[in-house]
């Protein structure tokens, strides 16, 4: 959350001459409401089912840069689909997350005690991110252009 996946993803797509897609955007467009609203109205399990379908559909339809929501890797089937693909885990520490996002309440999983919640989410998810990642790129103290360059280097990709 707040790591810059959308900004970096767009930069990568541009540099590679590829399309860009974000499954969070797909979900909002298909559902006609925000992710926060889905969480509030239907709960996290319902959102995760929607997310799983959105990721599966995007992986089948899109061959460019794809950004996934932070919880997508919680699903075992999704992790299996990501296995053969180049996947980058953009990492950052909690202080960087606070600086970038303020850990505000627009993020449903961080609504109460954001720093503690962020740390707990990362502790629960980090091993899953690392499991599917072809490369891990730290974003702390780096701008989007620098992160995009580090991703290209990590994946040994050439710009278009």
From TrEMBL:
Query: What does the entry list as the binding residues for ATP?
Result: 2-7, 107, 142
Task: Give the CDD domains listed for this entry.
Answer: SK
Write down the Pfam families for this protein, in alphabetical order. Answer: SKI
Major localization class: cytoplasm
Give GO MF terms, alphabetically.
shikimate kinase activity
Enzyme nomenclature, EC number: 2.7.1.71
The pathway entry for this protein reads as: Metabolic intermediate biosynthesis; chorismate biosynthesis; chorismate from D-erythrose 4-phosphate and phosphoenolpyruvate: step 5/7
Judged by the first EC level, this protein's enzyme class is: transferase
* Annotated compartments: Cytoplasm
Cofactor binding, per record: Binds 1 Mg(2+) ion per subunit.
Which InterPro entries does the UniProt entry name for this protein?
A: P-loop_NTPase, Shikimate/glucono_kinase, Shikimate_kinase/TSH1, Shikimate_kinase_CS
Please give the cofactor(s) recorded in the UniProt entry for this protein. Mg(2+)
- Family membership noted in the UniProt record: Belongs to the shikimate kinase family.
Q: How does it assemble?
A: Monomer.
Q: What does this protein do?
A: Catalyzes the specific phosphorylation of the 3-hydroxyl group of shikimic acid using ATP as a cosubstrate.
Name of protein: Shikimate kinase
